[in-house]
Amino acid sequence: MDENIYKTPESNLAVPSDDSDHLMATRSSRLLASIIDGFTIMIVTIPVMYFTGGFDGLSKGIQPPLAYTIAMGILGLAVFMLINFGFLKNAGQTVGKKVAGIKIVTMEDELPIFSHFLKRYSLYFLPGQIPLAGQLFSILNILFIFGKNKRCIHDYAAGTKVVKC
Asked: Mean pLDDT across the stretch 77-84?
């Protein structure tokens, strides 16, 4: 009996590190990228809305018809894809993500394919065009970024995550 039963127990107190957290894009870098991407869409959609009468009833509290709102959402998505498709295909980045130094990857850390982007951005843009319910969904979608994994609903739906470059 060589072992001292009164000896202080020994244990390894090192916490195993999860290297994936330091690779994830920060919430602020994702916000910056989203703001820049939003401005790139507005450069086209605001003039289109102005010339097609999209703002006519707003000063009187009249919302545009649902079909018009959905058409503008589809136009915004189309403009977004026209501007960003090459960047997304080659590097997993939009203009905003390129500026912010972040990119989209699959959960296996590979560049996403077209179907990933289609799921991701359709879920990001289109529900917001539906009055009330769409706006609530959009807010919930964005609030998911405050979870432990820093992923929005559109990230989960597409099987993607946003990481630092």
From this structure: 88
